[in-house]
Amino acid sequence: MQGVKVAKGLQAGWGTCSRTVLFGSTPYALAIWNNLIATGLGSGNIILLDATTGTSISTLSRHTGFVNSLAFSPDGTSLVSGSADTTVRLWDIQTGGVVRIFLGHFTPVMSVSISPDQATIASGSTDDTIRLWNTQTGECYCVIDGHKDRINSVSFSPTNSQLIISASCNKTLKWWDINGHQIGPTYEGYYAAFSSDGSHFVSWGGEVIMVQNFDSGVIVTELQVPGNSFECFCLSPNGKLMACAMDHIIYIWDITSSDSEPIKTLVGHTRRINSIAFSSTLISSSFDGSIKFWQLDVPSTNLASTDPESEPLTPASITSISVQSKDHIAISSDEAGVVRT
């Protein structure tokens, strides 16, 4: 847990940064389950954080390369991780131990997902394949090589353990059953994800983000993307908001509205964002070595919000820290004479 610092916090309105957590290594991946955040670092460690306070709970240490992707099991008892060390690992959250290691990919694992019934793990790699793993035996029982290029994202339907969606660098988006057979047509898209109820899927194809009905494929809405430096996107649990990271900026859309323009722009990170995830707030991780918590309430007409302390933070050893659990506040002072909450 060394090197994890709650750098600041403030009372925040819609779209402002309420807390920043600094790491001694770049955070690459985020996953959220209830009040628990998992952050995958460039060091190979996985840090578990309290989603309310940002404080570190425990560290999972076994990977020897960047942790590129994380996914909690539906009941929150397990965590799946995919790493640049080519392995997929299943963790017991209660003990912090590795339940199983899945070996078979030849190059970095970029995306992982676990089925709703927790029987199967899907992993996508830069070796151009998707592998399906039995969580009980560790066996890779199916290798899918239908994309012919690096796999950017792979996800189980949140409501159907037999259905997988994947997207690749060759701009193909495909559906698969649990035995690796393609279902239905091939769509265009570099990245794809399900809505939380499984009724819609979201894809990015270069110019717009499209939300489509799963059953019919009908386009529900198209969101105009400002620029081409796309990094990642996610949907809010209630299905109303879409967040998309472009370089170091986050854009928010109301996908229930007919307006294709973002309703909010979140500015605070100083380097490229690599992962975002919704809980009661929006959380983002960046190559600036931090994750940020963004307050989400009722949208206002103010379209731009900036983290008021978004300048790069100079590293200095913390000399003291105090925690006020009642108010969910941590106060620290460092050798540079800076006090942060």
Descriptive overview:
- The structure is a single chain.
- By secondary structure, this protein is mainly β.
- The protein has a single domain, classed as Methylamine Dehydrogenase, Chain H (7 Propeller), CATH 2.130.10.10.
- Helix content is 0%, strand content 55%.
- It is built from no helices and 33 strands.
- The strands form 8 sheets. Strands 1-2-29-28-27 form a 5-stranded antiparallel β-sheet, with no helix packed on it. Strands 23-24-25-26-30 form a 5-stranded mixed β-sheet, with no helix packed on it.
- It is globular, with a radius of gyration of 19 Å.
Low-confidence stretches: 298-304, 308-320, 323-329, 333-341
- Rg for CA atoms: 19 Å
Percent of residues in beta strands?
A: over 45%
Architecture (CATH level 2) name = 7 Propeller
Q: Major beta sheet, specifics?
A: 5 strands, antiparallel
The proportion of residues forming helix, as a percent range, comes to under 10%
First-residue to last-residue Cα separation: 19 Å
Total strand segments: 33
- CATH superfamily, by name, is YVTN repeat-like/Quinoprotein amine dehydrogenase
CATH class: Mainly Beta
CATH topology: Methylamine Dehydrogenase, Chain H
